[in-house]
Amino acid sequence: MAPSRAPSAPNTTFRRLRGSLSPGEFAAAVRRAAREIGEQVSCDARYIGRVEAGEIRCPNYAYERVFRHMFPGRTLEDLGFAPRHSVRGRRSRPLSEGEPENCPSGHRNENDEESDVLRRAFMAGGSVAIASALALGPRPARAAGHGTGTGASDVPDVPDVPAGGGRGVGTAEVRAVEESVRGIRLLDDQYGADAIYRRAGHILRVAHGLLDEQPGSAAVADRLHAGAGELAITVGWLAHDSGRLAEARAHYAEALATARLSDDPALEAHAFCNTAFLARDAGRPREAVRAAQAARRAARQVPSARLQSLLALREAGGWAGLGDRTACEGALNRAHALFGRGTCDDDPEWMSFFGEAELYGLQAQCWAALGEHARAAGYARRAVELQDPHFGRNIALFTAELVVDLVGAGCVDEAAHQAEEALLLMDRVRSSRIRGMLDDAARGLRGHRGNPAAAAFLEHYAQARADRAGAV
Question: Which of 289, 295, 346, 430 is the most buried (most CB within 10 A)?
Fold first, then answer.
């Protein structure tokens, strides 16, 4: 039997090296340093959090080279990691409860960091022997071209997951749920929802089974309910992004009920935040306003200015949908002031996507709803420029938003050029919501067929639709 492992000690050395940068800002610095030396690492705020929490005892070789480039002359120990020789080689099977996280034995490619997260998403042992259920890594995308617009190739189905064994739920199962949320969000950031929604729903059903089992302690029960609630919101978002709005609404309602039952204001604020966004997209702006305001009330117990900023933007989107420019501008001003207070350690983990690019992108959507397309285009253009490369789905989203705004503003040449960019991005990203925005832009450009750039795009767009139809 594998020896038990002491609880992970936080890596305070690495935390000091981050200094005043937020986890997201530091992750961006890591990716920039990687590019400087020709490495590719998929580093985000969640990875930095895992390092600082001590969950990653020793980075893989690619990360080690990047960290040593960033901090010349320092060894792994100087960075707060365990020496490589002290950590056994990685096994081919998933980790079981009590087993150490090991270092790899050689160089790995750019997708391995995500794969590691996903392989650990559900660990063998206890009530959930489901390690094989989370083969979430996408297959390589097709070669670039004008593409099908369907995104990365279809991924393997998730195998059936055995039901809980009735032996109770412990920390291994709770960590499995928490890791699954992180892994699914990583894939969604890069590839969009369409490719992973059904498999994520399968994982949520497994988590529901765990809720019916006996928890090992009150602390385990609290973590399990919080993790299952976050998983429900994550699956709800995937439903939203893939055009399944009724299913998204049900998942958010489930998360809200979980939050209320477990008296979890952070989870409640998250559920209401996503409900507000969904209501706006579903054409229910007044509900969007009410849900955003409810989220703000719940979030009073969460000392995060960034969370309050995002909730003000959700409220602004509802006011814009109602055509109330004064209320919308008031909410936008409040969002800017709160955003300017910066990040803090109490910012929820799920908010790693919310940076300056998102701030501009959500403002663009508000101004577009108010009919000010030229102004909206300016914000959308800035959102595209500022978006971190890791968030491939959001780059495609803001590019599609920019196209719609440019068409509305009558800037046909630039709209056609950006539409070509969006079409290429959709070779990698699978999101019915974003594809719908591009469809709207194409309808707008059909009235400008006499423009050579618009005509060229419409030809490529028609071919992409034909390819997508043939692939179904």
Answer: 430
